[in-house]
Design goal:
about 375 residues; alpha/beta
Amino acid sequence: MFRLSNLLKSVVNGTPSRSLDGSIAIWNFTNRCNLSCLHCYSKATLDSKDTLTTETIMQTLPKLKENGVKFIIFSGGEPLTRKDIFDIAQRAKELGIVTYLSTNGLYVTTKNAQNILDTFNYVGISIDGSEETHDYFRGLKGSFNESMKAVKLLNSYKKTKVGIRFTITRDTFKDLEFIFDLAEKEQIPKVYISHLVYSGRGLDNLKMDITKEQRVKAVEFIIEKAFYYFDNNIDIEIVTGNMEMDAIIFLERFSKRYPELKDEMVKRLKAWGGNSAGRKLLNIDSEGNVKPDPFFPFTIGNILQEDFSDIWSNNPSELLQSLRKFPRELKGKCKGCEYLDICNGGSRSRANAIYDDLWAQDPSCYLEL
């Protein structure tokens, strides 16, 4: 994740930026979901059965803590379909792990809202654009209104930070401005913009990705919004995901406005380190498979068959060791790129999907070099 708002604010104000002293685990606790989204990387359905028992999950949580995991993003499917999800999150919090909930919002009600806010440090709800776009993309008429009810309900408590999550595709590209207008109108404190990764239904629908020209336009718009919010003291945080090259465009715009602070920004961007799959990021899917990120085409182990500590720390695979080299040893235009120690080459999943080579350049890189 690229926290551009936080970096902008902290560098200009001369304060420490948010840094990840540890790892993030994105855990797909279930593959069961009440929607059928076109871009879903896990191909979730309502008929799916949970493989991971509460006992297995509870036994694994302390091992994540021991291996430096500081954040767990509760994902799915739809994580709120699990009856034990609050118990799991509470146990994670007891271990000192920060809990994020990623949900479509349809199971958020007045009855469980307080429990959600008490249990999770942050709640991200997926909104794919206007009502028409969202309902089409999510495969359910009326889902936009239900998701927005959840956003408004949770945000009304002003207790836990609530944000909206948006994936840029050809179908949603036209709604990017709508998403920011919505955040401003409803005073939603965080907007997370995700770029498409070719995995799950995202791979089946590869044609839904935007062009490089559209991506540049979208990223420039997002960055300008970040500057606008900062200049006008508007408390909306912007984060982008799955496109670490956004940091390079941001650096160029930042350097023009604050040339005297360019070196400090470069320093912080290098400390951030770009794509962190297998290094500061891991995924556990609904079958217990451990992967460097949720989209990764290969697994590095399974918590039902191996101890997590052996998978992640004690006996890391050759693949994991290669991913942890910094910067990575990559091919194509990544090789020798002056920005490699900032973006770290972007998505290995996209490279493998297009070139059948994990170490090829990210085909979605839009930088002109």
